[in-house]
Amino acid sequence: RFTEQVTAGMKPMPTVSFVPGLGGAYALRDAAADPATVALFALPGFLLSLEDPSGPAHRAELEAVVLAARVPVALWIPEKSAVKTLPDLITLARRGDGAVICAGPGRFTAPHLASVLFNREAGVLTLFMPLLGTDEARAAAIQGRVQAVWAYALVPGSLPGMRPLAVAAESRSPVLPDVPTFAELGLKVTISAELGFALSPKSNTKDAASAALKAALADSYTQDALARQGFIPIPATDSPLSLYLDEQVERLKTFTRDYPS
């Protein structure tokens, strides 16, 4: 849905690849071999997966073209769960290690890092079950295999049968106005994912694709469509994206050192 909203007005419409897992690292690997494909990636998952020499992203030769939007993470539970509030979940987790298992889309992703922050801030040890994507994590919760899901703070309909307990943002999400932030509940858990597009350096349409993507993202209709879902458009900048990514890598190294998973 995200890529459809961004590329709807682009002519010609590009082929956008996204394969769940490692922040889009698998899609990036595939796009590296296809100069015509635009790959959707998510930070911080992709940057962290670069540190894994056996991972698909480590071998991918790609060039980030544009950052499109960010979206905070939220902690979701099944609507039929006996857990009603975040304090309820924390009380359950304090019964013992492994009492609460939370699923989420992959290792090294923003939801994974949110779970690490939550454990440290709440003084508990919930277990994180990395699955292929959010749909798989939601299914695990609905089936009762896990108690909660770390996923993006999008409109409630994005996770049927689930409801959010708290949002990992500095302020409440406009699409989840009745859901408190973790900070409101006394926990310093703030983390978002950033979505962007990348191309193979072999692409001979990189400049045109970059310009088209930036134009699409600057369109007010696209921005409104993204905002209605819970995404926060990232304004275009003249600063090289590579510098920003380098800064993020250093921040993530600090995070993983201070909060080992």
Protein described:
With 261 residues, this protein is an alpha/beta fold. It has helices spanning 2-7, 25-32, 45-49, 86-93, 110-122, 134-142, 206-218, 220-229, 241-258; strands at 15-17, 37-43, 63-78, 101-105, 127-131, 148-152, 162-167, 192-199, 232-233. Strands 1, 2, 3, 4, 5, 6, 7, 8 and 9 form a 9-stranded mixed beta sheet that branches. Helix 2 links the parallel strand 1 and strand 2 (37-43). The longest helix has 18 residues, at 241-258. The radius of gyration is 18 Å and the shape is globular. The protein starts with a helix and ends with a helix. The mean pLDDT is 81.
- For the secondary structure, the number of strands is 9
The radius of gyration over CA amounts to 18 Å
* Helix count from the secondary structure assignment: 9
Oligomeric description of these chains: single chain
Q: What is the typical, i.e. mean, pLDDT?
A: 81
| Helix content range | 25-40%
- How large is the share of residues in beta strands? 15-25%
> What's the overall geometry?
globular
Query: What would you call the structural class?
Result: alpha/beta
Distance between the termini: 31 Å
Report low-confidence residues grouped into runs of 5 or more: none
Compressed to H and E, one letter per element, the order equals: HEHEHEHEHEHEEEHHEH
